[in-house]
Design goal:
The chain is of the alpha+beta class. It folds into 3 domains: about 5-115, Acyl-CoA dehydrogenase/oxidase, N-terminal domain (Butyryl-Coa Dehydrogenase, subunit A, domain 1, Orthogonal Bundle); about 120-230, Butyryl-CoA Dehydrogenase, subunit A, domain 2 (Beta Barrel); about 235-380, Butyryl-CoA Dehydrogenase, subunit A, domain 3, CATH 1.20.140.10. It is built from 12 helices and 10 strands. It has helices at about 5-20, 25-35, 40-45, 65-80, 85-90, 95-100, 100-115, 235-270, 280-310, 315-340, 350-360, 370-380, and strands at about 120-125, 140, 145-155, 165-170, 185-190, 200-205, 210-220, 225, 270, 275. The strands form 3 sheets. Strands 1-4-5-8 form a 4-stranded mixed sheet. The longest helix is centred in the middle third of the chain and has 37 residues, at about 235-270. The radius of gyration is 21 Å and the shape is globular. Bound molecules: flavin-adenine dinucleotide. Flavin-adenine dinucleotide binds near residues 157, 360 and 385.
Length: about 375
């Protein structure tokens, strides 16, 4: 099997690189230090159409595939930026595209493609459920005209920078379903109309990620907010996971390449004991090892994306790509930190920011232990461990 990029894919890479070059490392450092949303960058990406590449042309999007979307996010992170500020605008719409009504698609997808509507919040995780999504307690109670939703979410990112949010809630209590994955539903919430019914409390984190705790109290939504059929929300969620895994892997690969370029450059120019530090194998090997891991992860990521675009099952590849890429970018971050010595910790060298940022991907959107559980159970057919 061979992976070669098409002319169009190479052009996309170059164009995204050019746009990202307008937002240099100092821009990202200032956003990080001020805990500011990179609004100018996200707006520029939206206006250039890069965040709408996965939306079909009939709804105003780029009508491109997963390989192209992966290139976009890889290049943001490879430039030293953080795709996490806007990655969800690319893929959260997938549940609307695949399972939404024609009215929902026509009402929202063109705006999402143009960037005039932001759908980059998704509320899945809850304090008491953690990785066991079936234990969520947020409940949507059926009324005559719609639903009333009450519950709590945690780590709902970019809520303040979204017009819409995809929310997972139970519509049948856990005790009343025959399978625990049943009885959950996905809702498309217009956060602009939520008013006091949703209180968002920012969570201070070690990265500039704009994540929140949400307190949802008697939020009234019309029946038209339901995505697809009631009770099938969990399976709709699973349908979108492969895309998310592949795109997150791409951000990690971008991070990994950025770390390796920085570490290699510094290892050649920094002279200690009358020679470049890169002459020492103790400095070379972690960089070379991380480079090897990033390249291997890239292959798995491309295999997953190619299968996704061909409409073939890609769960194992997408999960393995997320695992390999997040571990590889972390190894690359560690290698860069070690290479830069004390300067790795100084914010003006940018390594410590990227190191903090790439650490997230070992934990979110899914902890790597749970990825390994998936591989053990679904690929290797070992007994389910939880
Ligand atoms: C900055 C940030 C942004 C996020 N953004 C969003 C968002 O926008 N929307 C959203 O819904 N969520 C979001 N999340 C939540 C994220 O998806 C979860 O943190 C992640 O899935 C892990 O869940 P948890 O934190 O509850 O960990 P837990 O489930 O409590 O797990 C804790 C640890 O135990 C391990 N563990 C748990 N069960 C097992 C098991 N059976 N076998 C082996 N190990 C196990 C895990 O691997 C993990 O290391 C975000 C998180 C962060 C930190």
């Amino acid at each position: 099997m061979e992976f070669g990029y098409t002319d169009l894919q190479r052009e996309i890479r170059t164009s995204v690189q050019q746009l990202c070059a307008r937002y240099d490392l100092d821009y990202w450092r200032a956003c990080d230090q001020d805990k500011a949303y990179p609004e100018a960058f996200v707006r520029a990406m939206s206006e250039a159409g890069w965040l709408g590449v996965l939306i079909p042309e009939e709804y105003g999007g780029g009508g491109l595939g997963m390989v192209e979307a992966a290139i976009v996010l890889e290049e943001i992170n490879r430039s030293g930026g953080s795709g996490a500020a806007c990655h969800a605008q690319m893929y959260t719409m997938g549940s609307v595209l695949r399972h939404g009504s024609e009215e929902q698609k026509h009402a929202y997808l063109p705006g999402i493609a143009a960037g005039t509507i932001r759908l980059q919040a998704f509320g899945i995780t809850e304090p008491d459920a953690g990785s066991d999504t079936t234990r969520i307690k947020t409940f949507a109670r059926r009324t005559g005209s719609g639903y009333v939703i009450t519950g709590q979410k945690v780590f709902t990112s970019r809520y303040q920078h979204s017009d819409l949010m995809v929310l997972l809630a139970r519509t049948t209590p856990l005790e009343e379903v025959s399978r625990k994955t049943e009885g959950m539903s996905l809702f498309l919430i217009d956060t602009r109309e939520a008013g006091e019914a949703i209180q968002a409390v920012p969570i201070d984190t070690m990265i500039n990620h704009e994540t929140n705790q949400l307190f949802i109290n008697e939020l009234e939504v019309p029946r038209s907010a339901l995505i697809g059929e009631e009770g099938r929300g969990f399976s709709y969620l699973l349908d979108g996971l492969n895309a998310e895994r592949i795109l997150i892997a791409s951000e990690c690969i971008g991070d990994g390449r950025w770390f390796i370029e920085r570490a290699t450059g510094y290892a050649q120019s920094r002279i200690v004991f009358d020679r470049p530090i890169g002459k020492n194998q103790g400095v070379q090997f972690p960089i070379a090892s991380a480079y090897t891991a990033v390249e291997a992860a890239d292959l798995m990521r491309l295999k997953a994306a190619s299968r996704f675009d061909a409409g073939e099952p890609c769960g194992p590849e997408a999960n393995m790509a997320k695992y390999l890429a997040s571990e590889a970018s972390w190894a690359a971050g560690e290698a860069a930190m070690a290479t830069f010595g004390g300067y790795g910790l100084a914010s003006e060298y940018h390594v410590e920011r990227k190191w903090r940022e790439t650490r997230l991907f070992r934990t979110a959107p899914i902890a790597n232990n749970l990825v390994l559980s998936y591989v053990a159970e679904h690929v290797l057919k070992l007994p389910r461990s939880y």
